[in-house]
Design goal:
19% helix; binds zinc ion; tRNA_SAD
């Protein structure tokens, strides 16, 4: 492929745009691996930042998006159980692209709820140490710093969990807007109203009332870290 292919990260601009008629920006591959295709108007979130990749399709072929280290593009690899490939596509071709909308909304809900739990943890004096937003294993980890002693017993951790739950419920009741903007250094910063701001390249809901079933399932201590496990879903779209 040649250099200079342009790709727009549509998934960062609109979480809810899950199908688009786009154009092939580039194709690639080697003799011993299947060809990949990159789309100019890219609606596919690649795995990263603790968020899993979207499930998607180009035409009828199921594809797996991934960030290509060489080109920096989000490229689509065929993962079709019917054996369909992307081999016939060429730069400039028009393609129908779509992602699994239900899974997109679940990922966005889990990711946004993760930010919200991060904010609630920071309010207790904890420092963010890691985030995983995968369905079924979503958790936010913190270093507790000087508050570690107050988390020693199970009843202490349950009290901490209740404080988190109260803050989370309050922010959802306030329906804080979720926005993204570039900061002075060109980073994308995601905000939950005035409650929270963090650099992030994931997909998010529009405002916190889009979240449903945000549940903090456990607060545990693991290797000196506070691990807050949670589940969340997206409110049904009207
Ligand atoms: Zn985020």
């Amino acid at each position: 492929m040649s250099d200079g292919h342009h790709q727009t990260a549509v998934y960062l601009e609109d979480t809810y745009l899950t199908a688009i008629t786009g154009h092939v920006a580039a194709t690639g591959g080697t003799a011993d691996s299947a060809a990949w295709v990159a789309v100019r108007e890219n609606i596919f979130h690649p795995q990263g930042g603790g968020q899993p990749a979207d499930r998607g399709w180009l035409g009828e072929c199921e594809v797996a998006p991934a960030r290509d280290a060489e080109t920096g593009l989000v490229v689509l690899h065929p993962r079709d159980d019917q054996g369909r490939t992307l081999g016939d596509l060429a730069e400039g071709d028009v393609v129908a692209a779509r992602v699994d909308a239900d899974l997109r909304l679940l990922h966005a809900a889990l990711h946004t709820a993760g930010h919200l739990i991060e904010a609630a943890g920071r309010a207790q004096g904890w420092v963010l140490a890691g985030s995983i937003h995968f369905p079924g294993q979503a958790r936010i980890e913190f270093t507790p710093g000087e508050t570690a002693a107050s988390l020693a017993g199970p009843e202490d951790r349950e009290k901490a969990a209740d404080r988190l739950r109260t803050r989370v419920a309050s922010a959802i009741a306030d329906d804080l807007p979720v926005t993204a903007e570039q900061d002075d250094e060109g980073r994308r910063v995601v905000r939950l109203g005035d409650l929270h701001a963090a650099p992030c390249g994931g997909t998010h809901v529009r405002s916190l009332a889009d979240l449903a079933d945000v549940t903090i399932t456990a607060v545990k201590m693991k290797k000196g870290r506070v691990r807050v496990s949670y589940t969340a879903s997206h409110r049904p779209l009207k």
